[in-house]
Write a structure and sequence with these properties.
The structure holds 2 protein chains of 2 kinds. Chain A has helices at residues 12-45, 49-64, 67-88, 99-124, 128-136, 141-171, 183-194, 197-226. By secondary structure, chain A is mainly alpha-helical. Chain B has helices spanning 5-37, 42-57, 60-70, 75-79, 82-86, 89-114, 118-126, 131-161, 173-184, 187-216. Chain B is flat and about 70 Å long. The A-B interface holds A 60-61, 63-69, 72-73, 76-77, 80, 166, 170-171, 173-174, 176-177, 184, 187-188, 191, 195-198, 201-202, 204-205, 208-209, 212-213 and B 53-54, 57-63, 65-66, 69-74, 156, 159-164, 166-167, 174, 177-178, 181-182, 185, 187-188, 191, 194-195, 198-199, 202-203.
């Protein structure tokens, strides 16, 4: 247990901050994922063949390619792409993007593909009459979407979104390969310097279990809140 | 871009080997734990539930690292015959993948077993068929049919999971892709080729499962 002391003697505080980092990356990735989902869900549901195929390509490619490969693409290609864009504007110095941003962006794109599928499914299972009634009653676009469609969609989407959250949380362990100090990376460092990998990786497993357990409790509460009245 | 293709194809063989071996082992593990989950003994039941909870609640990467880096630390293990297996990254990856997919498979099979209509079992019993034969000839075939769609997803998830073998020095498709990227600094090109190979494999798995569903599925 000495290994877990806070301060200079143990790894307790390092692992604590690493856990916070994992949570921060997961939440950022989830939010980036929602932004992608908000962009691609309408495309997937569109009747236009061209838009439709763009939406399908996004979800198929991202869900069919290993997460690690996507992370490598952004890790090795990200700064190159930004430098290329910057060079168009006449900025030619070397730009390095921060590991947090690369990590949460690549995990966000992955989680966005799953969220897109969830939102698409939820929107499609709302009764058609709801859309028609809202239109017939002449609500403006804001009320139509935010007050009528969105609440119904959330009720259907939240159980599946909690699955997406679990996947995202576990995927963040992969960005340890880019050097961002989250639970996995910190355990790797601690295991290397104490030569006690069994303890630290098992402890990392316990931390992940705790995170998944606690977030499930929270999400279950949210689920009951949104399914009120049904 | 074209020159890297043969290397990546070679690595694909390792990915496929990892995938097939761990799927077969995982199927047996999953079936075993699914049977334990349906046991009436609370302790056995809890044990099987705990197994699937732990393996589904932690990242696959942690599981591989515990098995590859962690288990080697136990002095006692080094003296047993297990060490022959555990010192090879290939077998460590296979153990981690099979245990992981076994946990998911056990959940898929359990829910398939539980949704079998009781009428089928009652019919079997009233015809005087021994319970062993009811299990192997009635329950298992129906469970396989019902779990096909979910199991197809699990195969695709596992295909993506095998990419983690590259973290324990195995040169699978992702490992070789990363090596080529870091030596040539052409991430986009390599991503397109390696990603294309992965997509091609997912496409084939998806269609094979679809075909099997059509062939063996219930027409309801």
């Amino acid at each position: 247990m000495e290994l877990l002391y806070f301060g200079d003697k143990g790894w307790g505080d390092e692992l604590f901050f690493a856990t916070l980092m994992t949570i921060a990356v997961s939440i950022t990735a989830m939010i980036i994922g929602f932004i992608f989902a908000a962009l691609f869900t309408p495309l997937k549901l569109s009747n236009n063949k061209f838009f439709n195929s763009i939406g399908n390509a996004y979800t198929t490619v991202i869900r069919g390619v290993p997460e690690l490969l996507v992370i490598y693409l952004f890790f090795f290609g990200g700064s190159g792409a930004i430098m290329f864009v910057a060079s168009i504007f006449g900025y030619n110095d070397y730009i390095e993007i921060n590991a947090f941003l690369t990590g949460s962006f690549s995990i966000g794109i992955i989680s966005g593909a799953y969220s897109t599928e969830v939102f698409r499914g939820a929107l499609q299972s709302i009764d058609k009459g709801q859309f028609e009634a809202a239109k017939v009653l002449g609500f403006n676009k804001y009320i139509y979407f935010f007050k009528i469609i969105l609440p119904q969609m959330l009720r259907l989407a939240i159980p599946n979104l909690s699955n997406v959250w679990q996947i995202t949380l576990k995927d963040t362990s992969l960005i340890s390969v880019t050097g961002l100090v989250e639970i996995m990376r910190q355990s790797y460092i601690a295991a290397g310097s104490t030569r006690d990998p069994l303890f630290f990786y098992s402890f990392a497993a316990v931390l992940y279990l705790m995170l998944t357990f606690l977030s499930m409790q929270l999400l279950n509460r949210l689920e009951t809140k949104y399914s009120k009245g049904y | 871009m074209i020159s890297s293709f043969p290397k990546l194809l070679n690595a694909t063989l390792i990915t496929l080997k990892l995938l097939s071996v761990s799927l077969i082992l995982g199927l047996f593990i999953g079936l075993g734990f699914a049977i334990l989950r349906m046991n009436n003994n609370k302790l056995i039941n809890k044990f099987a539930y705990g197994y699937s909870y732990i393996f589904r609640g932690t990242p696959l990467l942690v599981q591989i690292f515990i098995i590859y880096f962690g288990l080697g630390q136990i002095e006692y293990l080094r003296t047993t015959f297990l060490w022959v297996v555990l010192k090879e990254p290939y077998w460590c990856a296979i153990i981690a993948f099979s245990l992981n997919t076994g946990a998911y498979t056990s959940e898929i099979l359990r829910s398939a077993f539980q949704t079998i209509k009781p009428g089928y079992l009652e019919a079997g019993r009233s015809l005087g068929i021994p319970s062993k034969i009811i299990f192997t000839k009635i329950q298992i075939p129906i469970a396989i049919k019902q779990s096909l769609p979910a199991y197809g997803n699990e195969i695709i998830l596992m295909l993506k999971g095998t990419s983690l073998a590259s973290t324990v020095t195995l040169m699978d498709l992702t490992g070789v892709a990363k090596y080529i990227i870091s030596t040539t600094f052409k991430p986009v090109e390599v991503f397109i080729v390696a990603g294309g190979i992965y997509l091609f494999m997912t496409f084939i798995i998806h269609n094979v499962i679809k075909y099997l569903e059509k062939k063996y599925g219930f027409h309801t």
